[in-house]
């Protein structure tokens, strides 16, 4: 990298806070003032500095973007999904940032989804929503709700043009194409229609951006006339709303990180009062799926990895077991169809699907061929069906859509995401790549799985560079996934690895519990153990190893930078939660109170306070030799505030000034970064160019 440009100077304005007798000085707290012109000027100066420091990578960024573009079939069409009398699908068009939502009427005798050549519009197509038209004049666009009413007449959809995840909800008449005057501002994700499509339920958030209310809106009326159906006053809990696949019930899901409660309203009586399926009990989680005369209950009551039961749909009461708890087999979801149940699960670190025919004991697991893969149900809106739509991928297999016959057990590939020839003109061949499962040994003797992919013939003598990705929070699993942009790294000799560390859900609920609250440091030491193992096993060397993580994975990045700065030559932290203690101490910030069951409550518990202070990245910056760090954030992010990485980079420069630190802020985006597909490709090209530069493959 060039070094002629000096980084912007972050002024120091010391502010103090005291908790449990401990006084902390924060010199950069002023950066949290988003509306202060000085803050915007500073972030702009940081962007200019980053641009100058990475100017020499402009050609490489252009090459990486072009490689992604050339390998992507830009004009494409998703496999249509049937609901009622229509096939629903999404089209993309070359040169356009956003998808086009469409449908086409089902024709007589038509059972298989229609296809088109090269992603062209289907004959008889009806355009429901064109994201490109909606996004005109806006730097950011995101679609929240997209919900067609049971009779197919109305479309409820919501839009966000800033990235703050507050959406404006509208209703479109699909018979005339006209927008109704109905308009509801500041809504959240989640909608549900009544059976007769006269009523729409939706969700709003409180001042801390917590989804706390479910509303009932009568189509054609003013938003001012809407009625609150459920309000959740316990600040630990979120609410959500959905219509069951059977279209018989509206479900209101109320959940914290460790406790849940579900209320139901008959879809045929939308003005009825919500009824509780089972009252909340601290530490008991359950979800509900309607199936004929019963509600299916997936729960952890005395079942660490969850069990499946049912109760009466007429008078919910006792839970009757269907699948007993099996330690090590984590049941994650159940989908009900008229004659079959499909259970999504994971065991031995891999996802799976179990089919239970109704009225039969002949349940079975669906087999898949690769040693590493990710599988799950795709959109399946039809309740009365004999087949289900699956989505499958691996580190070397592009996203694939299958229809699976629940009776004959035949699986038919409908579409695999096209990967077009790269810059050398050669078509993508998965046989040129190989994937592996390896295991690292953590400090406490725990075996931690690692998934790896590289080109065939990549040396194992420590000379290959490597990118190690991690997350490790909220029981979220980093299951193997295919990436077109990643091919540009693999083809340059880079090994890509995923550390399946504790705090995630790859190995069940216990794996998650061992990486949260007062066991959170296991997440960080597991990741370092994976890095050390990759070096010891000859996959790479520490001076050729770059770590990458986002959001809570960004907290991981900051923590391992402090814990083992010698283990990496570079660290990419995207929307990183690096000032965790400050945020979790402030209940007025978005989502803080709901997070206390994940991290602990340092406001009331001195042990939690001391523990978090010992690992939170911003608090623990030291005068050591850090690896190069690239922090990427977004000004309108409501989940992890931009000020966290901004403060972190400023403190790194002040305390360890010899390091190489860059901050890149998207000035018009949210937690997910740029919204358009071309913009997101450019963002990925920027990051990958920086990685290649760090490992000597630029």
Automatic annotation (TrEMBL):
<dbReference type="InterPro" id="IPR051543">
    <property type="entry name" value="Serine_Peptidase_S9A"/>
</dbReference>
<comment type="similarity">
    <text>Belongs to the peptidase S9A family.</text>
</comment>
<dbReference type="Pfam" id="PF02897">
    <property type="entry name" value="Peptidase_S9_N"/>
</dbReference>
<feature type="region of interest" description="Disordered">
    <location>
        <begin position="1"/>
        <end position="20"/>
    </location>
</feature>
<feature type="domain" description="Peptidase S9A N-terminal">
    <location>
        <begin position="8"/>
        <end position="416"/>
    </location>
</feature>
<keyword id="KW-0645">Protease</keyword>
<feature type="domain" description="Peptidase S9 prolyl oligopeptidase catalytic">
    <location>
        <begin position="481"/>
        <end position="695"/>
    </location>
</feature>
<keyword id="KW-0378">Hydrolase</keyword>
<dbReference type="InterPro" id="IPR029058">
    <property type="entry name" value="AB_hydrolase_fold"/>
</dbReference>
<dbReference type="InterPro" id="IPR002470">
    <property type="entry name" value="Peptidase_S9A"/>
</dbReference>
<dbReference type="InterPro" id="IPR023302">
    <property type="entry name" value="Pept_S9A_N"/>
</dbReference>
<protein>
    <submittedName>
        <fullName>Oligopeptidase B</fullName>
        <ecNumber>3.4.21.83</ecNumber>
    </submittedName>
</protein>
<dbReference type="GO" id="GO:0004252">
    <property type="term" value="F:serine-type endopeptidase activity"/>
</dbReference>
<dbReference type="InterPro" id="IPR001375">
    <property type="entry name" value="Peptidase_S9_cat"/>
</dbReference>
<dbReference type="Pfam" id="PF00326">
    <property type="entry name" value="Peptidase_S9"/>
</dbReference>
<keyword id="KW-0720">Serine protease</keyword>
